[in-house]
Design a protein that fits this description.
By secondary structure, the protein is mainly alpha-helical. It starts with a helix and ends with a helix. It is built from three helices and no strands. The longest helix has 41 residues. The chain has one domain.
């Protein structure tokens, strides 16, 4: 039996949850880019001027989402190994994950607000 098995299993589940979050953010970045290309194609085939193809900064947003996903996965990996090392050392642990989780949440909320404003026509 692995010593502190429950703690190691919880650490691994948390790691895998962060990896899934990173993959989801990356796929969102790809989806945004492909959806913009789809709208641009539709706009080119419509008669007259169409507002569909006039989305600004979608390429930058897609790149930022993929970069954020890479950051999330690297940070999750570093966190996993740090906590694994601390669990093996059997010292009293201090929880330090709040800042990272809060920062990712704030970035995702800012992105959601931007998309909402963009889709409502404010940009």
């Amino acid at each position: 039996m692995i010593k502190n098995y429950k703690d190691h299993a919880a650490n691994e589940r948390t790691y895998l949850a962060w990896i899934r979050t990173g993959v989801t953010v990356m796929m969102l970045g790809f989806f945004i880019e492909k959806f913009e290309l789809f709208l641009a194609t539709i706009a080119n085939n419509l008669p007259g001027k169409s507002r569909l193809g006039q989305f600004l900064y979608t390429s930058h947003i897609s790149i930022a989402m993929v970069a954020l996903a890479i950051f999330i996965m690297v940070a999750a990996t570093l966190r996993y190994f740090r906590i694994k090392r601390e669990l093996d050392a059997e010292v009293t642990l201090q929880f330090r994950g709040t800042l990272f989780a809060t920062a990712v949440t704030v970035v995702m909320l800012a992105f959601a607000i931007y998309l909402l404003a963009h889709l409502s026509g404010l940009f």
